[in-house]
């Protein structure tokens, strides 16, 4: 590390924005960055798409603008020694292998158009068991619209151009990481690399969780050809050189799904450590070490990371909350309760509690641990005293309750309750929210020094690939005390409120069934 300053670049392509962040190599020191929003397209209710070409153009803009900022600060782009890619997971892009042109918009991870595809596949399960966990021993995941294989199958069944291209061997499939790396390393015209790393592959339902290879049984079940698939690589190794943008000639040396990148960025590198990232959704990962822990309580088994092709993979249990920060966006855009997300904490502090209002924001079903795609959003407990401030506070609490759902499942699966939860993401700037999280779960909540650790995680992994002696656990600044939030409510109050939350969830799941109105049937006769 002696001599001139070295930098590492991190491409962070999320659901709502993309950015390129330049770190001082081997540290969490951000030198500069550039960020641009990525617009979504909503063709029908529950459908979410993005333009793949626009995604790549935005990423290129972020790279070039961040590099220009580095030069203005007196740095040199040539001193960027490595680049890592981290991305929204499960989202699907298919493109023509000869032209590199997309055959359809990207289908984004929270899209639920594949509900009928899931139903049809469940019907095909042997012995008519209709067990959504039928494939879990192979891939660690339940059948759900969430995962890439379902989106791919939908494209094959519903888009004639995709089916024709698949039948002729003309299709390349990739999650967002694959699409970006393919184009950055040359694309169709210049030998672009068609790869994905083990963490992204583990979210497709097509990779065997033990062998870390595409599984022929899974491909047969989904009716998909292996000719479309990228090569699976480790999360930290030299893949190839960038051939586009201002970072041309710099090696891409790391790739991690965004939540796994945050696990690394939060330094949760030992078994029993866990982190939660609060963004559009909320994602909890619990490091299980080299052990593959199969959840019997609705959690997912996933690959945490693999640092080098000859290294053992590290696994994790994951619980996913579909609607976190986006619930607040909904309050702003659909209900007009406030003008800016920056007003949320101040509004919620105007009331001492939610006045027994419970909001289950199941706009597109419930993820872990319920996995119920028919559930819908409900607000329970409204009275004439309820104000917009109570609803805002109830929305913050809804995210906290969903995190408790997942942590309770993790405790049941692993047998060891967490003593602390490392947290990051955009919502962690809200101190009241983190205090509510600590209160409603009953453990210490520790905020990261920097709110966004996703880019940091992949930057550290990228540097490790070219400096094998580098210890990732030394990548954070010394002497920086993280802010800790401790529970201040009683266990009795915590459990009572959680019980009411579970009652609200029951109504969300059964909103359109007779069970939802039992006891009040005379009102409907």
TrEMBL record:
NCBIfam families: glycerol_kin, PRK00047.1. Keywords: ATP-binding, Glycerol metabolism, Kinase, Nucleotide-binding, Transferase. Residues 7-265 form the Carbohydrate kinase FGGY N-terminal domain. One of its GO terms (biological process) is glycerol catabolic process. GO terms for molecular function: ATP binding; glycerol kinase activity. Belongs to the FGGY kinase family. PANTHER family: GLYCEROL KINASE (PTHR10196:SF82), SUGAR KINASE (PTHR10196). Pathway: Polyol metabolism; glycerol degradation via glycerol kinase pathway; sn-glycerol 3-phosphate from glycerol: step 1/1. It comes from Musca domestica (House fly). PROSITE patterns: FGGY_KINASES_1 (PS00933), FGGY_KINASES_2 (PS00445). Residues 275-465 form the Carbohydrate kinase FGGY C-terminal domain. It catalyses: glycerol + ATP = sn-glycerol 3-phosphate + ADP + H(+). This is Probable glycerol kinase. InterPro entries: ATPase_NBD (IPR043129), Carb_kinase_FGGY (IPR000577), Carb_kinase_FGGY_CS (IPR018483), FGGY_C (IPR018485), FGGY_N (IPR018484), GK1-3_metazoan-type (IPR042018), Glycerol_kin (IPR005999). The keyword ATP-binding applies. GO terms for cellular component: mitochondrion. Its EC number is 2.7.1.30.
């Amino acid at each position: 590390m002696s001599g001139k300053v070295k930098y590492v670049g991190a491409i962070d392509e999320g659901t709502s924005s993309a950015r390129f962040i330049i770190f001082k190599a081997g540290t969490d020191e951000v030198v500069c960055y550039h960020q641009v929003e990525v617009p979504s397209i909503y063709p029908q209710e529950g459908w979410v798409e993005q333009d793949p070409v626009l995604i790549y153009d935005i990423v290129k803009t972020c790279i070039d603008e961040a590099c220009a900022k580095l030069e203005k600060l007196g740095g040199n782009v040539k001193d960027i020694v490595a680049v890592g890619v981290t991305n929204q997971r499960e989202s699907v892009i298919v493109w023509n292998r000869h032209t590199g042109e997309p055959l359809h918009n990207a289908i984004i991870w929270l899209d639920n158009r594949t509900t009928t595809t899931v139903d049809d596949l469940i019907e095909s399960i042997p012995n008519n068991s209709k067990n959504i966990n039928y494939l879990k021993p192979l891939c660690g995941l339940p059948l759900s619209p969430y995962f890439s294989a379902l989106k791919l199958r939908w494209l094959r069944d519903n888009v004639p151009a995709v089916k024709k291209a698949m039948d002729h061997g003309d299709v390349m499939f990739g999650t967002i990481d694959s699409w970006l790396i393919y184009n950055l390393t040359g694309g169709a015209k210049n030998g672009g690399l068609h790869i994905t790393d083990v963490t992204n592959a583990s979210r497709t339902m097509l990779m065997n969780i033990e062998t870390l290879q595409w599984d022929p049984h899974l491909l047969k079940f989904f009716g998909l050809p292996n000719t479309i698939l990228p090569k699976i690589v480790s999360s930290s190794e030299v893949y190839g050189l960038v051939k586009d943008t201002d970072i041309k000639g710099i090696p891409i040396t790391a790739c991690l799904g965004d939540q796994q990148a945050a696990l690394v960025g939060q330094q949760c590198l030992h078994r029993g450590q866990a982190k939660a990232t609060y963004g559009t959704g909320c994602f909890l990962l619990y490091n299980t070490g080299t052990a593959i822990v199969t959840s019997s309580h609705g959690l997912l088994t996933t690959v945490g990371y693999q640092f080098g092709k000859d290294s053992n993979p590290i696994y994790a249990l994951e619980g996913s909350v579909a609607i976190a920060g986006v619930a607040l966006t909904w309050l702003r855009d659909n209900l007009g309760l406030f003008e800016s997300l920056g007003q949320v904490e101040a509004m919620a502090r105007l009331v001492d509690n939610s006045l027994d209002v419970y909001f289950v924001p199941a706009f597109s079903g419930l993820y872990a641990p319920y996995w119920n795609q028919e559930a819908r959003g409900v607000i329970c407990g409204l009275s004439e005293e309820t104000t917009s401030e109570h609803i805002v506070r109830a929305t913050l609490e809804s995210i906290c309750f969903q995190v408790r759902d997942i942590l309770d499942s993790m405790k049941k699966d692993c047998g060891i309750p967490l003593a602390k939860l490392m947290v990051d993401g955009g919502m962690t700037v809200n101190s009241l929210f983190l205090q509510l999280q600590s209160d409603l779960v009953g453990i210490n909540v520790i905020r990261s020094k920097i709110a966004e650790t996703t880019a940091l995680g992949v930057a550290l992994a990228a540097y490790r690939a070219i400096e094998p002696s580098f210890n990732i656990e030394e990548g954070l600044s010394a002497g920086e005390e993280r802010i800790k939030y401790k529970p201040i409510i009683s266990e009795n109050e915590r459990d009572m409120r959680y019980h009411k939350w579970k009652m609200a969830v029951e109504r969300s799941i059964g909103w359109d069934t007779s069970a939802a109105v039992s006891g009040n049937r005379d009102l409907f006769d």
